[in-house]
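ok so for the tutorial part 2 we go from a plain amino acid sequence to predicted C-alpha coordinates. step 1 is just haveing the sequence, like this:
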Amino acid sequence: MHSMRLPLALLAALICAAAGVVAAPQDDGFKFKSGVELVNVTATVSDDNGHFVTGLTKDDFNIFDDGEQQEIAQFSNERVPVSLGILLDTSGSMTPEKMSSAKSAIDRFIYDLLGKDDELFFMQFASVPDLLQGWTFDRRAISRAAGQVSAAGGTALYDAIAQALPIAADGRNQKKAVLVITDGNDTNSRTSVTQLRNLIRESEVMVYALGVDGNDVQTYTPQPRQPSGPRFPIPIPRGGRGRWPGFPFSPAPQIGFPPIGGGSWGRAGNEHVNENALRAVTDDTGGRTEIVRGFGDLSNATQRLADELSQQYYIGYNNGGKKDGKWHAIKVDVRNRRYTVRARKGYVAS
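step 2 — the prediction. this is what the C-alpha coordinates look like for a chain of 350 residues:
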Protein backbone atom coordinates (compact mmCIF):
# COMPACT_ATOMS: atom_id res chain seq x y z
CA MET A 1 0.00 0.00 0.00
CA HIS A 2 2.79 2.38 0.93
CA SER A 3 4.62 1.53 -2.31
CA MET A 4 1.69 2.81 -4.42
CA ARG A 5 1.57 6.24 -2.75
CA LEU A 6 4.69 7.60 -4.46
CA PRO A 7 3.56 6.85 -8.05
CA LEU A 8 0.10 8.24 -7.29
CA ALA A 9 1.58 11.38 -5.75
CA LEU A 10 3.91 11.79 -8.70
CA LEU A 11 1.01 11.37 -11.14
CA ALA A 12 -1.03 13.97 -9.26
CA ALA A 13 1.88 16.42 -9.36
CA LEU A 14 2.28 15.96 -13.11
CA ILE A 15 -1.45 16.54 -13.67
CA CYS A 16 -1.34 19.75 -11.61
CA ALA A 17 1.72 20.98 -13.48
CA ALA A 18 0.04 20.34 -16.82
CA ALA A 19 -3.08 22.14 -15.66
CA GLY A 20 -0.92 25.06 -14.56
CA VAL A 21 0.62 25.30 -18.02
CA VAL A 22 -2.79 25.26 -19.68
CA ALA A 23 -4.15 27.83 -17.27
CA ALA A 24 -1.17 30.18 -17.64
CA PRO A 25 -2.26 33.58 -18.97
CA GLN A 26 -1.57 34.19 -22.65
CA ASP A 27 0.18 37.37 -23.79
CA ASP A 28 -1.50 38.36 -27.04
CA GLY A 29 0.73 41.40 -27.52
CA PHE A 30 3.07 41.39 -30.51
CA LYS A 31 6.69 40.52 -29.85
CA PHE A 32 9.52 40.39 -32.35
CA LYS A 33 11.30 37.08 -32.59
CA SER A 34 15.00 37.03 -33.21
CA GLY A 35 17.06 34.50 -35.08
CA VAL A 36 19.44 34.26 -37.97
CA GLU A 37 16.81 32.53 -40.13
CA LEU A 38 14.07 35.13 -39.66
CA VAL A 39 14.04 37.89 -42.26
CA ASN A 40 12.44 41.10 -40.97
CA VAL A 41 10.70 43.41 -43.43
CA THR A 42 9.00 46.75 -42.74
CA ALA A 43 6.40 47.61 -45.39
CA THR A 44 4.74 50.94 -46.17
CA VAL A 45 1.46 50.79 -48.13
CA SER A 46 -0.05 53.77 -49.95
CA ASP A 47 -3.03 54.33 -52.26
CA ASP A 48 -3.30 56.09 -55.62
CA ASN A 49 -3.29 59.48 -53.89
CA GLY A 50 -0.18 58.75 -51.85
CA HIS A 51 -2.11 58.35 -48.59
CA PHE A 52 -0.97 55.68 -46.16
CA VAL A 53 -3.20 52.60 -46.00
CA THR A 54 -3.88 51.20 -42.55
CA GLY A 55 -5.94 48.30 -41.20
CA LEU A 56 -4.61 45.58 -43.51
CA THR A 57 -4.19 42.05 -42.17
CA LYS A 58 -1.69 39.27 -42.69
CA ASP A 59 -3.92 37.74 -45.37
CA ASP A 60 -3.68 40.91 -47.47
CA PHE A 61 0.07 40.46 -48.02
CA ASN A 62 2.24 38.26 -50.19
CA ILE A 63 6.00 38.10 -49.75
CA PHE A 64 8.54 36.52 -52.09
CA ASP A 65 12.18 35.52 -51.61
CA ASP A 66 14.00 35.21 -54.96
CA GLY A 67 10.61 34.84 -56.63
CA GLU A 68 9.35 32.07 -54.33
CA GLN A 69 6.36 32.90 -52.15
CA GLN A 70 7.05 32.61 -48.43
CA GLU A 71 4.82 31.83 -45.48
CA ILE A 72 4.50 34.83 -43.19
CA ALA A 73 5.68 33.74 -39.75
CA GLN A 74 5.17 37.07 -37.99
CA PHE A 75 2.96 40.04 -38.70
CA SER A 76 1.97 43.28 -36.99
CA ASN A 77 -0.09 46.25 -38.13
CA GLU A 78 0.47 48.18 -34.90
CA ARG A 79 3.03 50.91 -34.34
CA VAL A 80 6.30 49.55 -32.99
CA PRO A 81 9.07 51.73 -31.52
CA VAL A 82 11.92 52.83 -33.78
CA SER A 83 15.61 53.34 -33.13
CA LEU A 84 16.35 56.42 -35.24
CA GLY A 85 19.54 58.30 -36.04
CA ILE A 86 19.30 61.93 -37.18
CA LEU A 87 22.10 63.13 -39.48
CA LEU A 88 22.27 66.88 -40.13
CA ASP A 89 24.30 68.50 -42.90
CA THR A 90 26.40 71.29 -41.33
CA SER A 91 28.53 72.12 -44.36
CA GLY A 92 29.40 75.66 -45.37
CA SER A 93 26.29 76.09 -47.52
CA MET A 94 24.07 75.91 -44.44
CA THR A 95 23.34 79.58 -43.79
CA PRO A 96 22.22 80.71 -40.31
CA GLU A 97 18.63 80.88 -41.59
CA LYS A 98 18.80 77.31 -42.90
CA MET A 99 20.37 76.06 -39.69
CA SER A 100 17.71 77.75 -37.57
CA SER A 101 14.91 76.19 -39.63
CA ALA A 102 16.54 72.76 -39.45
CA LYS A 103 16.92 72.94 -35.66
CA SER A 104 13.29 74.02 -35.23
CA ALA A 105 12.08 71.15 -37.43
CA ILE A 106 14.20 68.65 -35.49
CA ASP A 107 12.84 69.91 -32.15
CA ARG A 108 9.24 69.56 -33.31
CA PHE A 109 10.03 66.12 -34.74
CA ILE A 110 11.55 64.70 -31.56
CA TYR A 111 9.27 66.39 -29.01
CA ASP A 112 5.86 66.30 -30.71
CA LEU A 113 5.89 63.66 -33.45
CA LEU A 114 7.88 60.65 -32.26
CA GLY A 115 6.79 58.12 -29.64
CA LYS A 116 8.14 58.02 -26.09
CA ASP A 117 9.67 54.58 -26.70
CA ASP A 118 11.63 55.75 -29.75
CA GLU A 119 15.36 56.07 -29.05
CA LEU A 120 17.57 58.52 -30.92
CA PHE A 121 21.13 59.49 -31.73
CA PHE A 122 22.39 62.67 -33.42
CA MET A 123 25.25 63.14 -35.87
CA GLN A 124 26.43 66.20 -37.77
CA PHE A 125 28.45 65.97 -40.95
CA ALA A 126 30.49 68.52 -42.85
CA SER A 127 33.95 67.58 -44.13
CA VAL A 128 33.81 64.60 -41.73
CA PRO A 129 31.00 62.97 -39.71
CA ASP A 130 30.81 63.70 -35.99
CA LEU A 131 28.60 61.79 -33.54
CA LEU A 132 27.46 64.42 -31.03
CA GLN A 133 24.93 62.36 -29.07
CA GLY A 134 24.73 58.58 -28.79
CA TRP A 135 21.62 56.51 -28.13
CA THR A 136 19.23 58.19 -25.72
CA PHE A 137 15.55 58.58 -24.87
CA ASP A 138 16.25 62.09 -23.57
CA ARG A 139 14.86 64.55 -26.11
CA ARG A 140 16.65 67.44 -24.42
CA ALA A 141 20.01 65.77 -25.06
CA ILE A 142 19.24 65.56 -28.78
CA SER A 143 18.03 69.17 -28.85
CA ARG A 144 21.19 70.36 -27.09
CA ALA A 145 23.37 68.47 -29.56
CA ALA A 146 21.54 70.00 -32.53
CA GLY A 147 21.75 73.43 -30.93
CA GLN A 148 25.54 73.45 -30.69
CA VAL A 149 26.34 72.85 -34.37
CA SER A 150 27.72 75.48 -36.73
CA ALA A 151 28.23 75.48 -40.49
CA ALA A 152 31.65 75.07 -42.12
CA GLY A 153 33.48 72.83 -44.58
CA GLY A 154 32.46 70.38 -47.27
CA THR A 155 29.86 67.60 -47.33
CA ALA A 156 30.82 64.03 -46.39
CA LEU A 157 27.31 62.66 -46.90
CA TYR A 158 28.21 59.07 -47.83
CA ASP A 159 30.78 58.79 -45.03
CA ALA A 160 28.16 59.95 -42.53
CA ILE A 161 25.61 57.33 -43.59
CA ALA A 162 28.29 54.62 -43.64
CA GLN A 163 29.30 55.54 -40.09
CA ALA A 164 25.68 55.75 -38.91
CA LEU A 165 24.59 52.31 -40.21
CA PRO A 166 26.37 50.15 -37.58
CA ILE A 167 25.26 52.54 -34.83
CA ALA A 168 21.65 52.25 -35.97
CA ALA A 169 21.98 48.47 -36.22
CA ASP A 170 22.88 48.38 -32.51
CA GLY A 171 19.64 50.12 -31.51
CA ARG A 172 17.50 48.24 -29.02
CA ASN A 173 14.28 48.46 -31.06
CA GLN A 174 13.65 46.02 -33.88
CA LYS A 175 12.73 48.79 -36.32
CA LYS A 176 15.85 50.79 -37.16
CA ALA A 177 16.17 53.86 -39.36
CA VAL A 178 18.40 56.79 -40.27
CA LEU A 179 17.17 60.25 -41.31
CA VAL A 180 19.49 62.48 -43.35
CA ILE A 181 18.78 66.22 -43.71
CA THR A 182 20.92 67.88 -46.38
CA ASP A 183 20.88 70.79 -48.82
CA GLY A 184 23.58 69.69 -51.23
CA ASN A 185 25.73 67.04 -52.85
CA ASP A 186 28.55 64.92 -51.48
CA THR A 187 31.93 66.62 -51.89
CA ASN A 188 34.22 65.06 -49.28
CA SER A 189 33.44 61.37 -48.73
CA ARG A 190 35.97 58.59 -49.06
CA THR A 191 33.06 56.16 -49.32
CA SER A 192 31.65 55.78 -52.83
CA VAL A 193 27.98 55.30 -53.66
CA THR A 194 28.68 51.69 -54.67
CA GLN A 195 30.47 50.95 -51.40
CA LEU A 196 27.66 52.56 -49.42
CA ARG A 197 24.98 50.57 -51.24
CA ASN A 198 26.86 47.35 -50.45
CA LEU A 199 26.92 48.30 -46.76
CA ILE A 200 23.20 49.06 -46.88
CA ARG A 201 22.45 45.67 -48.45
CA GLU A 202 24.02 43.98 -45.44
CA SER A 203 21.86 45.96 -43.02
CA GLU A 204 18.20 46.05 -42.00
CA VAL A 205 18.37 49.81 -41.39
CA MET A 206 15.93 51.95 -43.39
CA VAL A 207 17.46 55.16 -44.75
CA TYR A 208 15.36 58.30 -45.26
CA ALA A 209 16.62 61.51 -46.83
CA LEU A 210 15.09 64.98 -46.76
CA GLY A 211 16.82 66.98 -49.47
CA VAL A 212 16.28 70.72 -49.28
CA ASP A 213 16.45 72.27 -52.73
CA GLY A 214 18.82 75.23 -53.10
CA ASN A 215 16.27 77.62 -54.60
CA ASP A 216 16.02 79.51 -51.32
CA VAL A 217 19.71 80.50 -51.41
CA GLN A 218 20.18 84.22 -52.05
CA THR A 219 22.84 85.46 -54.44
CA TYR A 220 23.86 88.86 -55.67
CA THR A 221 23.47 89.64 -59.39
CA PRO A 222 25.40 92.74 -60.52
CA GLN A 223 23.95 95.08 -63.11
CA PRO A 224 25.84 95.09 -66.43
CA ARG A 225 28.13 98.09 -66.73
CA GLN A 226 31.48 99.05 -68.16
CA PRO A 227 34.21 98.83 -65.52
CA SER A 228 36.08 102.08 -64.97
CA GLY A 229 39.85 101.90 -64.90
CA PRO A 230 41.99 98.80 -65.29
CA ARG A 231 40.64 95.38 -64.32
CA PHE A 232 42.79 93.43 -61.89
CA PRO A 233 42.71 89.63 -61.67
CA ILE A 234 40.73 88.50 -58.65
CA PRO A 235 41.35 84.96 -57.35
CA ILE A 236 38.24 82.76 -57.41
CA PRO A 237 37.89 80.30 -54.51
CA ARG A 238 38.30 76.66 -55.48
CA GLY A 239 35.48 74.17 -55.01
CA GLY A 240 31.77 74.45 -55.61
CA ARG A 241 31.04 75.92 -52.19
CA GLY A 242 33.78 78.51 -51.74
CA ARG A 243 32.90 81.93 -50.40
CA TRP A 244 34.06 85.26 -51.66
CA PRO A 245 36.13 87.19 -49.10
CA GLY A 246 33.96 89.81 -47.46
CA PHE A 247 30.68 88.42 -48.79
CA PRO A 248 28.53 86.42 -46.35
CA PHE A 249 26.54 84.61 -48.98
CA SER A 250 27.06 81.48 -51.03
CA PRO A 251 27.61 80.40 -53.76
CA ALA A 252 30.05 82.95 -55.14
CA PRO A 253 29.05 84.98 -58.20
CA GLN A 254 30.39 83.37 -61.36
CA ILE A 255 32.31 86.40 -62.66
CA GLY A 256 35.94 87.44 -62.78
CA PHE A 257 35.72 90.42 -60.44
CA PRO A 258 33.68 91.24 -57.34
CA PRO A 259 30.36 93.05 -57.80
CA ILE A 260 30.63 96.76 -57.11
CA GLY A 261 27.85 99.30 -57.22
CA GLY A 262 24.20 98.69 -58.04
CA GLY A 263 22.76 95.22 -58.33
CA SER A 264 19.93 93.01 -57.14
CA TRP A 265 19.37 89.97 -54.96
CA GLY A 266 17.84 86.84 -56.44
CA ARG A 267 17.38 83.11 -55.96
CA ALA A 268 20.19 80.74 -56.83
CA GLY A 269 19.34 78.12 -59.40
CA ASN A 270 22.60 76.19 -59.43
CA GLU A 271 22.56 74.65 -55.93
CA HIS A 272 20.12 71.81 -56.44
CA VAL A 273 20.33 68.75 -54.24
CA ASN A 274 21.26 65.56 -56.12
CA GLU A 275 17.97 63.69 -55.89
CA ASN A 276 19.15 60.70 -57.94
CA ALA A 277 22.16 60.16 -55.68
CA LEU A 278 19.94 60.24 -52.59
CA ARG A 279 17.45 57.80 -54.11
CA ALA A 280 20.29 55.44 -54.98
CA VAL A 281 21.01 55.28 -51.26
CA THR A 282 17.50 55.22 -49.78
CA ASP A 283 15.31 53.21 -52.13
CA ASP A 284 16.85 49.75 -51.58
CA THR A 285 16.27 50.05 -47.83
CA GLY A 286 12.50 50.57 -47.80
CA GLY A 287 13.06 54.22 -46.92
CA ARG A 288 12.63 57.09 -49.36
CA THR A 289 13.90 60.46 -50.51
CA GLU A 290 11.75 63.58 -50.33
CA ILE A 291 12.81 66.88 -51.87
CA VAL A 292 11.36 70.04 -50.34
CA ARG A 293 11.57 73.50 -51.86
CA GLY A 294 13.10 75.20 -48.85
CA PHE A 295 13.80 74.85 -45.16
CA GLY A 296 10.43 76.41 -44.42
CA ASP A 297 8.84 73.16 -45.69
CA LEU A 298 11.08 70.93 -43.58
CA SER A 299 8.69 70.75 -40.63
CA ASN A 300 5.88 69.43 -42.85
CA ALA A 301 8.27 66.85 -44.31
CA THR A 302 9.19 65.53 -40.86
CA GLN A 303 5.46 65.35 -40.06
CA ARG A 304 4.97 63.06 -43.08
CA LEU A 305 7.91 60.92 -42.00
CA ALA A 306 6.54 60.55 -38.47
CA ASP A 307 3.15 59.54 -39.92
CA GLU A 308 4.85 56.93 -42.08
CA LEU A 309 6.82 55.42 -39.19
CA SER A 310 3.54 55.13 -37.26
CA GLN A 311 1.58 53.40 -40.03
CA GLN A 312 3.92 50.70 -41.29
CA TYR A 313 3.53 46.92 -41.26
CA TYR A 314 6.01 44.42 -39.91
CA ILE A 315 6.44 41.10 -41.72
CA GLY A 316 8.77 38.27 -40.74
CA TYR A 317 9.45 35.04 -42.62
CA ASN A 318 11.85 32.11 -42.33
CA ASN A 319 14.42 32.00 -45.11
CA GLY A 320 15.12 28.29 -44.72
CA GLY A 321 18.51 28.72 -43.12
CA LYS A 322 20.25 30.40 -46.05
CA LYS A 323 23.78 31.47 -45.11
CA ASP A 324 25.43 31.62 -48.50
CA GLY A 325 26.63 35.23 -48.28
CA LYS A 326 24.66 36.09 -51.41
CA TRP A 327 22.09 38.76 -52.19
CA HIS A 328 18.48 37.54 -52.15
CA ALA A 329 15.70 39.67 -53.62
CA ILE A 330 12.58 40.47 -51.58
CA LYS A 331 9.25 41.46 -53.08
CA VAL A 332 6.17 42.40 -51.07
CA ASP A 333 2.75 43.04 -52.57
CA VAL A 334 -0.88 43.20 -51.47
CA ARG A 335 -4.03 41.71 -52.94
CA ASN A 336 -5.47 45.12 -53.78
CA ARG A 337 -3.52 46.06 -56.91
CA ARG A 338 -4.44 49.73 -56.49
CA TYR A 339 -2.10 49.92 -53.51
CA THR A 340 1.65 50.42 -53.70
CA VAL A 341 4.03 48.71 -51.28
CA ARG A 342 7.48 50.03 -50.39
CA ALA A 343 9.88 47.69 -48.57
CA ARG A 344 13.54 46.80 -48.63
CA LYS A 345 14.49 45.06 -51.85
CA GLY A 346 16.63 42.27 -50.48
CA TYR A 347 19.20 41.05 -47.97
CA VAL A 348 22.55 39.32 -47.78
CA ALA A 349 22.21 35.87 -46.18
CA SER A 350 25.14 35.59 -43.81
